[in-house]
């Protein structure tokens, strides 16, 4: 995207650039004389975000301006998370233009102030190209940039921090303070506690030391109190201990013991769900824990040998342990509660560009940023699907040239940000300015692989992922060398020139050895090879502007803001997604990547249509008509009928790691049935493959999650269902049951309701038995055409006949509420403000009119008055005063269900199908399709089920995270 003044674009990269001449910026996406904003269609949207659990409004801002191609979810998240200024005041941002301008103009000014550009014209092109890329969701900065840049508050741009702590009370207390300030700013931090002497060593006064595990309690309590950014979610932190620390066994067991405590308290009736009233009594829940292992230990595990634990003060071995037994304890703990993760120390430091300035001891909370202590890293991620060229006939290519130019643009912007950035501590500020660590990465890898017909766990998928990663990092370091020629190398480069260039050669050598698989990845490998050659040549001449260039972050909130189907390097969650619609409502859709993949694989339009229809109905590709079984693997996802194996995740990490400066934020998902031996195998094989760090997560291993109670309810329901089935079988053997139709009398009370759903008008007449509830329903749609009108007539007759044969109304309500199809959206009924479809509205209205409060409340259906009461009192139920009968009111509202006698023989509650909670995100939709309950937490902001993003959780509904940005 840019060139220097020393020559033409390509030639300048090969020859280097003359210092202090500035960068020449070329246009890639923009048009001279036309601002990027003028090339898109803008529209006004209303953003109203509610808590799906109680209907309360979490956020509301109307009339915000966005391009017409932005998804509802992206608009909601950017408006609620990133717009600055108090809502309802003139200072509040009202559109995407203001937000992007606030950022790109700040970057341009800083670039000009620090002599990055050759001329004002180049600065303007930089501004326009950056604005275009953000506007079209081609990439995104990490969240702190959107929060802080261009505002009066401190302009913190980094999301990732590594702290340090020494063996002194002053340093430990300083750790608490520094960590708290980072949490207060909405970011996360990690550190290694291995300098703190163990509980098996003596203090200078002669007494025993407390040990690092004891000091973890204070830090954990501090994190739990401060939370992150003042929000009601846990802080993001990482705690690391070296495997040769004498307290390593206590460290490994900390969370396992707490999980046992959670079980005991839960069984005693305490609220131990994440966010529950009593969970705060449990320790060590606000951090991810990792053990830092070295090659000496792993070789001892391999050989079955002994391993020495060393005193922190003297370095002498004070205890020897069985390496394999200690490794087993790590695996058992991870199997039981997902902690600790593992980090491979020698692998990490083998790729360290600045060893002369210190070792890499720690990482950020999600394990992707690994560099010197007391440093930070600002991140940005590219949307890979934006670079896939598809002619619609199955012919695809990756736009190598445009990808490279966007990488250059983003790296330039990220480096400029360090010039004006603020930092939470003086030490972090000094070190970050001295080493200028950057973390460019990407999102949507899983979607890209599927769209190009590659299985996530395949040689072709790994080759394509590796090629893109190699090209991204090589282009980044090439730009870093070009920047060094213009504005100077990072301060620590002179001292670390030899190891830095050695690491660049390691990357280049790995690129040369990489296996090429098909036409897509081969062209990318070729471009990466050329770029690495430039990196070696320019680096030796100019040095580098940045000690680190790339990481793969979780891309939680920013991934949703870019409308990515998949986060970071994760595979797709499932083949069917939950999509919000403009104007309200939602629908289930088959991923758009599926038809692309089928075209790439050579299927014809008619075959694609049939396969997509099968997926829509079944949620998977098994037995899809015409789909070859050898192509099933292309559509494997993180969850579902065909989920990717745990080792498949590890193999993908290993395929990417050689071309990432830092590491990869990813959790290796394992089924609940996985064994401790399988955890051991993953930890061992990842070391062999050269992965720097990983964590496993076995389904349902956590106790303190919101669904543990539901699991117990499910078990009870299964027992009850079996009992009822036994009774029904016995009765059926005695007497044959035949339903009898009970017709309505000629004169019958009724209610006629007019309604509007998503602009479609209609009328519903509901007639009742004089003494026994609803008996028939008639529906009339206005101006909707004969087909819809006829279908509604037929539907009305079917429902009415069922009611007269004794089908309980609550059965219809549980089946038909939350059914989604157009028309859908806003209604004119104050009790039912939003409807997913006409059928959804009809049965919500019937429930409100004819079901008793207890029955419909169990189904989650409440009137406007009841929802208001809940907001004021915490209960939907009417008070004693409300229960006093108003005779006039009853006369006017008859014949509502409350006014008529109950059915003489009501159906037993156990026989009524349990209402199914409506899904509000793709994660919840997958759970419903698979009949499972994943133990992810509920979002504190909107109440929906979160999903994993690396080592953190992301809420697809509102963009909130459990720590990652």
Q: Key terms for this structure?
A:
nucleotide-binding, about 950 residues, disordered N terminus, alpha/beta, Anaerobic Ribonucleotide-triphosphate Reductase Large Chain, 4 domains
Short description:
Its cofactor is adenosylcob(III)alamin. The chain is α/β, with parallel strands linked by helices and 965 residues long.
Q: Hey, roughly how much beta strand do the residues contain? A: 15-25%
| Total count of domains | 4
Span of the ends, CA to CA: 27 Å
Structural class of the secondary structure composition?
alpha/beta
Q: What is the C-alpha radius of gyration, as a whole number of Å?
A: 30 Å
Average pLDDT, all residues: 84
Globally, the shape reads globular
Main β-sheet: number of strands, strand sense, barrel status? 10 strands, mixed
Indicate the low-confidence ranges by residue numbers: 3-19, 228-234, 704-716, 730-737, 880-916
Oligomer: single chain
| Number of distinct helices | 31
Q: Name the helicity range.
A: 40-55%
Count every beta strand, where a strand is a DSSP E run of 2 or more residues: 27
Domain Ribonucleotide reductase class II vitamin B12-dependent N-terminal: 47-137
Organism: Streptomyces tsukubensis (strain DSM 42081 / NBRC 108919 / NRRL 18488 / 9993)
InterPro entries: RdRp_reductase_class-2, RNR_2_N, RNR_lg_C, RNR_NrdJ/NrdZ, TSCPD_dom
EC number: 1.17.4.1
